[in-house]
Amino acid sequence: MSARMSKKKLRPMGEITADLEILLEEMTDPEGQDLQWGEILFLIFSWLSVHAQHARETYTEDGSHPEFKYGPR
Questions:
Q1: Average pLDDT for consecutive 10-residue bins of the chain (73 residues)?
Q2: List of residues 6+ apart from 24 with CB closer than 8 A
Q3: Contact, 27 vs 40, CB < 8 A?
Q4: Residue 41 DSSP label
Q5: The pTM is what?
Q6: Are 65 and 58 in contact (CB under 8 A)?
Q7: Distance CA 45, CA 3 (A)
Q8: Distances (CA, A) of 62 to 33, 38, 54
Q9: What is the C-alpha separation between 29 and 22, in angstroms, rounded?
């Protein structure tokens, strides 16, 4: 947890997802940013890769991580 988050009151997850919904609507608005799923998923994945490595799952059996893939089969 970052230092700025440690002193904040924990918000209910429903409030966080309600805030996120507004941002996602803004990102996908056809008359605005008009981003596609892949663009949004990559933005989030990239942010997590840089800023939240501590939150990545690690398999206990072999120490590997799940792979994220978005694209054709």
A1: 70 97 98 97 97 97 95 92
A2: 40
A3: yes
A4: H
A5: 0.79
A6: yes
A7: 22
A8: 41, 30, 18
A9: 11
